[in-house]
Amino acid sequence: MSTDTKPDLNIDRSIGDFRYDVAYEFDAGLGLTARTIDYICDVKKDPDWIRKFRQDALKKFESMPMPTHWASPDLNNIVFENIRYYLSQGTQAKRSWDEVPEDVKRTFERLGIPEQERKFLAGVEAQFDSEAAYSNIKAAVGEQGVIFVGSTEGLHKHPEIFRKWFGKVIPTGDNKFSALNSAVFSGGSFIYIPPGVKVKHPLQAYFRINAENFGQFERTLIIADEGSEVMYMEGCTAPKFETATLHSAVVELVALKGAKIQYITVQNWSPNVFNLVTKRGLAHEDAEIKWIDCNIGSRLTMKYPGVIMKERGARGEVVSIALSGDGQHQDTGAKMIHAADDTTSNIISKSISLGKGRATYRGLVQIGRHLKGCKNNTECDALLINTDSRTDTYPAITVHGKENACQHEASVSKISAEQIFYMQQRGIPKAAAMSLAVNGFVNDLVQQFPMEYSVELKRLIDLEMEGSVG
Amino acid sequence: MSLHIENLHANIGDREILRGLNLEIPKGEVHAIMGKNGSGKSTLAKVMAGHPDYEVTKGTVTLDGLALLDLEEPDERARAGLFVAFQYPMEVPGVSIANFIRAARQAALPEDAELDAVEYYQDLYVKMDALKIPRNFTSRAVNEGFSGGEKKRCEILQLAMLAPKYAVLDETDSGLDIDALKIVSDGVNALRSPDRGFLVITHYQRLLDYIVPDVVHVMVNGQIVLSGDKELALKLEAEGYDWVEKETLATA
Question: Domain B2-251: what homologous superfamily?
Answer without folding.
Answer: P-loop containing nucleotide triphosphate hydrolases (3.40.50.300)
